[in-house]
Design brief:
alpha/beta; Rossmann fold; 3 domains; two-stranded antiparallel ribbon
């Protein structure tokens, strides 16, 4: 303040004026109160009240960061939900060496109900494939009877190669695949084995391939993904005789060619042939059961060992 003249008080600055107004409203009765007033005065000057019009505006960069963070969080949440809902599908895809990682597009379609999750078949694939029937030369009654008496087996026509392939691919790799085909059905069985013998399908193994007087083209060379091929050749009716089979890689595949006295249509009805086919199927399935039991025992032993270490 600069002083008083003729009843007019002058102030040097607006701060001086505000100081005067504070002192007018609060009259300190002691030195202690005076100091309190001074402190209140200083605080009021240093911390002016914030009006709504003075609120801070968030920068565009900050808004973008918040939006990006929210989108990422929402995306992670959606992915977690999808992973939970589709856990069987994704677990199978990861566990199956011949299956690619499930794409985000597939997960989205299944989540939205646009498509159904593929059914997983957890049993061995024992697949019988019928040949062409012409005036009783290949009625396949014997093949159908074999399929009937093997629980869980499947019976197809030689024209259903795509369906057979789909059925095989629904099974995890630990489930053995066995193909039994007669006539053109034998030709289809070899074609399927060749398709599975590729990077696309992870060189899917065929434990047993039975070809009963096969008819067709380019089905004499048995691919390396086949462990054993039993090839029965009828010695009557040369028009149907397709000849012996040869392993593409003998170190991987056992091929057994057997010439039979039966004709093309009777070879599947032969009790001796049926017995040998059943014997081959039973051997593969028994080995599979033993291996699965050994795997489960190994897992149990490891878990018991882990628990005992944790306890100690």
């Amino acid at each position: 303040m600069v002083g008083v003249s003729e009843g007019i008080r002058q102030f040097k600055t607006s701060d001086d004026y505000r100081q005067k107004e504070i002192l007018k409203k609060v009259k300190p009765s002691s030195l202690k109160d005076s100091k309190l007033v001074e402190n209140q005065k200083v605080e009021s000057l240093e911390k002016p009240s914030i009006k709504k019009s003075d609120s801070v505006e968030i920068s565009k960069e900050a808004k973008d960061k918040i939006k990006s963070s929210a989108l990422n969080t929402a995306g992670d949440l959606a992915k977690n939900i999808a992973d939970k809902d589709l856990s069987p599908l994704i677990a199978t895809a990861k566990a199956t060496k011949n299956e690619a990682v499930v794409s985000d597009k597939v997960i989205k379609k299944v989540s939205n109900g646009e498509v159904n999750a593929p059914k997983i078949i957890r049993r061995p694939g024992v697949i019988f494939i019928n040949g062409f029937s012409l005036f009783g030369t290949s009625d396949d009654d014997g093949l159908k009877q074999m399929a009937k008496y093997i629980p869980g087996s499947e019976n197809y026509s030689y024209r259903q190669g795509g369906e057979i392939l789909d059925s095989i691919l629904k099974r995890p790799p630990n489930q053995p695949i066995l193909l039994i085909g007669h006539g053109l059905g034998g030709d289809t069985a070899v074609e399927i084995a060749n398709k599975l013998n590729s990077m696309k399908y992870g060189f899917r193994e065929i434990k047993l391939l039975v070809t009963l007087d096969s008819v067709g083209f380019n089905n004499d060379i048995i691919p390396q993904n086949v462990r054993c091929n039993l090839n029965y050749i009828g010695d009557q009716g040369g028009i149907f005789n397709d000849g012996p089979n040869i392993a593409k890689k003998p170190e991987y595949t056992d091929v057994i060619n057997e010439l039979r006295s039966e004709g093309h249509g009777e070879i599947v009805d032969s009790k001796e042939v049926q017995y040998k086919v059943f014997e081959g199927i039973n051997e593969v399935l028994q080995d599979s059961v033993i291996q699965n039991n050994m795997s489960r025992n190994s897992i149990n032993n490891l878990e018991n060992l882990r628990d005992s270490i944790s306890a100690n």
